[in-house]
Amino acid sequence: MIPAPNEPAYDVVWPLGKPAYATRAPVERVANLNNKVIGETWDYLFRGEEWFPILREELTKRYPGIKFVTYDTFGNLHGPNQRELVAKVPDLLKKHKVDAVISAIGA
Question: What is the predicted pLDDT for the residue at 17?
Answer without folding.
Answer: 76
